[in-house]
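Re: that chain you flagged

S.,

Sorry for the slow reply, it's been a week of failed gels. I finally had a moment to sit down with the sequence you sent. For the record, here it is as I used it:
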Amino acid sequence: MGQRSILGLHWEANYCAETADGSYTLVTNPSPLVSDVHFFQRDTYDDYVVHVGHSTRFTFLGAPEQLLVGDFVDCRRGSPSLRQSVRLEFTPDPRRALHVGQGIAMRFQGLTNITVRTEPTWFDSSRPDSHYDVGNDQIRVPTDTPTSSFPSLSVNDLPLPPHVLQILMQRQLEILRNGGSYDTTFDVAVGGEMSARDRRAAAV
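Prediction finished late last night. Pasting the structure tokens below so you have them in one place:
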């Protein structure tokens, strides 16, 4: 992985207060909604994940000495850093959040016993030919895919209004209750092959 910078991948300060015993109280940051707080038992996951419809702020909570690794690839069509890669090594810290912009593929390692708070900011597409489905915003790229073969994607650029975000939240809760999963957002070509929209595994 290269060490170039990617615009839209950076650290931001969290709203939090340190208590007398050295712990921290986290406050929700200015964001339309908190997506989830997830505890990881696995070290990593199988694929890179790309979202074209939302950026995300990740807060990593856990043992302060635990090493985490994040690998990122820019998949934004027209970006000056298209298909460039960045690797970050860091430790959990409630005082900061990692912002990952829409269209940046990501994969984390070292997640065992780590709690992650995710805060998305959602966008819709201004393109009349867009096939974006606001209820399904996940594209997966296998970890053995060469960086040069990562997809080139058009990302969304119009912030969604609050009432649409409420619909999204209801959709997320429905999936959690029914044990379903997200499909791919739309078909993309990776290494000459097309993703299958009806494959729940969403491997592309």
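What I noticed first: Helices lie at 162-178.

Talk soon,
D.
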